[in-house]
Design a protein that fits this description.
mainly beta; 6-stranded mixed sheet; Immunoglobulin-like; 2 domains; 5-stranded mixed sheet; elongated; about 50% strand; about 280 residues
Amino acid sequence: MLCLACYLPDAYAGSFDSALSIINAGIQSSEDGPFVSPSFRFMPGDELHGTFQIAGFATKVSGQQVKSISLNYSATVEDGSGKPFAEPVMGTVETELSNEDKSWTPKRRVAFTLPSFLAAGKGHLRIEVKDAIGSTAATQTLPFSIGGVSVTPSDSVSVQHLEFLRGENDREALGLPAYSPGDPVFARFEIVNFKTEGQNAYHVVYDLLVLRPDGKPFIQQPNAAELTGDGFYPAQVLPGNLQLTTSKSSPKGTYPINLTVHDLVAKATYQVKSAFTLE
């Protein structure tokens, strides 16, 4: 059972017999919101909030029965391997307490923004507290889940989930990528397993070649898109998209697509083939 006593009757807290502890700790999706359930999934780019209280700390008398406390804390959001998603939040609690404050426990709030190009997986919020007067420390780890894109690991850059859409903002992919002449053609995909360097910098480009039903080029776009950036945490997923324009006179039939991705950091290339039809 945790003791929440916060002061000592004597001048120095060395005889304080309660263990420093982190209590009432939890993860929230908004500031001061309810703690999330185990099934809740944060999405890439979401804000993650945490709340905790500190109990069992030592105090030192100074003056007329005024007790002082000196606490340091840090909070870090990390992936499953312990790599931080963002810079830690650090702070101190240094104040004076009266006898009426003997059951007081300081409460702290922290907030983080998860990386935007994050794969689905597990993470945790790690809270550490140190008591400078009592020379004690406490740690608590709170797990959470991350939704979004699941990545199949490989040794080199790859493309996954290439799918066609009826509209640019559609959520559901077409089961059969069939369009009518004159329709726009939309597709999306994810680039994964690319390498980073330096400050987690990535540099990826992709080329697009679409053939007509007779095998002649319909669209040929070297460097159709260039994706580059860096960040505190290495990007894991880069979204890609294609938008093609057909005309009423475009011949009906199957249009093969060759998508070639170049990881310029690793000097590696990956090609994926697909197709749509005009009917």
